[in-house]
Amino acid sequence: MAVGGAYGSKPATEHTTAANRAARDGLPLADRRDYEDAARGFIGTLDDPVIRRADGTPVIDIDAHAFVHEADDAPDEVHPSLWRHAQVTAHHGLFEVVEGVYQVRGFDLANMTLVEGDTGVIVIDPLSFTETAAAALALYRAHRGDRPVSAVIYTHSHGDHYGGSRAMVDGAGSVPVIAPDGMVYEAVAENIYAGTAMLRRGIYMYGPMLATGPRGQVNAGLASALSTGGSATLVPPTDLITRTGETRTIDGVEMVFQMAPGTEAPAEFLVHFPQRRVLCAAEDVNHLMHNLYTLRGAQVRDAATWWKTLNETIRLFGADTEVILGQHGWPRWGADDVREYLRDQRDLYKFIHDQTLRLANLGGTPIEIAEQLRLPAGLDAQWYSHGYYGSLNHNAKAVYQRYLGWYDSHPAHLHPLPPTEAGRRYVEYMGGADGVLEKARSAFDDGDYRWVAEVLTHVMFADPANTDAAELQADALEQLGYQAENATWRNEYLMAALELRQGVRDLGSIDLATADVFAAMTTEMILDYAGIKLNAERAGDLAASVVWTVEDAPGGPVDYLLEVRNGVLVYTADAQHPEPDATASSTKAALAQALFGGRPLDELVAASDIAIGDETDVVARIFGLLDDFPLWFEIVRP
Description:
By secondary structure, the chain is α+β, with helices and mostly antiparallel strands. The protein is built from 23 helices and 21 strands.
């Protein structure tokens, strides 16, 4: 999806330059430990840095961030801490962790970890797409021999940790696929139910449309960049881990699992390899502060569960681990160092949890708490506590939301006007758009970029065609991006500036529901999504019933009674109706295709993939009430 090229970006102002230089003066930049660890064990990388689809379309250029190595000092347009982080994460290729344990880094947002057994190799987290996964496996084999894949492990339910799975198992016979209990449901539900909104928001979070460079996309927090446009797959697990302490021995490799549901993902586990004294910490331990709330949107993560899980990790594996590796970033070596790293990461999430609630119980609101919190000196001194991906500011708001919700209890915020109406009135109160712009330009000249961005939002929502307001707001957001230590905040600001200057560019659809997703979804999940797509206003007072037989359900055909009433679509399994308005039958996949827009209903009926009784108009009317979800909706304009 990356389009590159210039988009009217401007240099850092004197205020941004001064802010970034002041930030640099307070950083321990002489500490080079992470530079050494990130490069340790390097074996080799790809000769051609561009990984492509079969049709030649690039999925990722793993060398696109080489520019960060061109200067030790950060450019004025990049926060010096983020520049350092971008340098450390820009390494790519195959690395030896310890003898028999390897990682491919920099080919995708996540790492692929490879653990050698007696005859084959166990692959942990096969990246986002088959293209990047295949390239990673090929690089490993080029240096370590053509070992067969003896097992695949998914550490958790996020797409960058399983999407390339078919590149690992296709043509390989029966390969065990191990995952935490609930992984498939959580993976599919997160990507489908709010998938369009999450994908659109993710474009802001990761900035794939930004040109790479000091004035554009510099980093994605967890890695240099997100791969885009590849072939996403999901091979269903064959072996689910359900409790902490379960063990498996595959190809001579012993593994001990620790369950971590509700931490970084709803379904997640850590894996200990006692023979090698190595702990794979999945995504629960990182070289940064992770998200309790991710800017792309997801359920708020539980900081209390997270710190307690890491406390258990220390108890279970702390005495028997000399190396810790994550599925992002680079390993750490040394038993004492590993234990301190685990303790600090534990303390980080406990601090955010406890201190947010302390301040909430003292009457603080989310914004007030987020502005007030500062990390203790001991944590702040560690690079792995810095907010390159999560941030103390928005993580504190996440804790507040988890316990107290979105409402801060001030009645003025209970039922506020929508942005377009509020914007019109704000602008009127402030003397009209020209008056607001005059004051905003003065604030911009003073370096008050947060206020400029906020006040001009009212102008943009009152008059989205106001190009002067759009340009000035873009300028302010751009400077905020240049000053951001957090990679995803930077991308958010710069993506907003890009769209204010150029408008929203429709780059086509991106498939959320692939064949593997269809296969992984239960019929109930498919019908849940149909209910989400039902337009209640257009449904009006329609009352209709359909008995739909899913022919290939496990255990034999199952009848679902579908009822549209009161603007909702209700379904009941194993139910009948004395006089349904219509009857229909199909496979689960055909039903999903019709509901998700993969193929029109009439085409599926004509091809006999869906059979409908005499009342075809009833079914067609219900399907006609289902909204399509266009991806490229406006964000910074109404």
